[in-house]
Amino acid sequence: MIQPRPRTIPEATVARLAVYLRVLTTLADGGRGTVASGELAEAAGVNPAGLRKDLSHLGPCGVRGVGYEVRTLRDRIARVLGVERSRACVLVGIGNLGSALADYAGFGTRGFEFVGLFDAAPARVGQHIGGLTVRPLADLEDVVAATRASIGVITTPAEVAQSICDRLAAAGVRSILNFAPVTLAAPPGVDVRKVDLSVELQVLAFLGQQRLVEEVS
């Protein structure tokens, strides 16, 4: 029986569900049949009460005294997150970061498949990365239409990121992951997530400094 998809789940919970999915996938690949809430919570880096609260958004999941059926819970979370089927993605900007993302095999095992890689530099066009050939930007709209790509990843310099966002949105891409160090404006109906690695490093630096202060005091 297919469970109905929850209508509203807090964004922070969605992020943790993705972590649970990763842990459950690893357990399933290892042949595990069930997992206790405490073990799943520890592997995901959360407390058991928080885990149970997150999973309550999915409806009844576990059995008291038994735990969770690994494959059943994995499949339910995958449906809720919309990754029960492969999602076609395109990536624009084949610098060091873009090349690393395009060559990472882990995306495919989690329901995301790159179907197009693009760059404006003639020296990069024609390169083979992750089983794909880098194509010129002129081909972007045609590839999006032909593959029905729904997700776009931007790893370009900041000054061209907005124009790439505009082209992706106009071509029909409805979800954009932006690694460029700039805030993008997207039309209604297009979701943009920004990943700023420098900010994350600064947060880590702050936490490390606070830890040193606490150890000294």
UniProtKB/TrEMBL annotation:
Source organism phylogeny: Bacteria, Bacillati, Actinomycetota, Actinomycetes, Geodermatophilales
Cellular localization per UniProt: Cytoplasm
Residues of the DNA-binding region: 19-58
Protein name (Swiss-Prot/TrEMBL): Redox-sensing transcriptional repressor Rex
Keywords from the UniProt entry: Cytoplasm, DNA-binding, NAD, Repressor, Transcription, Transcription regulation
Known function: Modulates transcription in response to changes in cellular NADH/NAD(+) redox state.
Domain CoA-binding intervals: 82-183
Binding-site positions, NAD(+): G93, I94, G95, N96, L97, G98
InterPro entries linked: CoA-bd (IPR003781), NAD(P)-bd_dom_sf (IPR036291), Rex_actinobacterial-type (IPR058236), Rex_DNA-bd_C_dom (IPR009718), Tscrpt_rep_Rex (IPR022876), WH-like_DNA-bd_sf (IPR036388), WH_DNA-bd_sf (IPR036390)
PANTHER family, per the entry: REDOX-SENSING TRANSCRIPTIONAL REPRESSOR REX, REDOX-SENSING TRANSCRIPTIONAL REPRESSOR REX 1
Keyword Repressor among UniProt keywords: yes
Classification via SUPFAM superfamilies: NAD(P)-binding Rossmann-fold domains, Winged helix' DNA-binding domain
Subunit relationships: Homodimer.
Record family assignment: Belongs to the transcriptional regulatory Rex family.
Pfam families: CoA_binding, Put_DNA-bind_N
Main location: cytoplasm
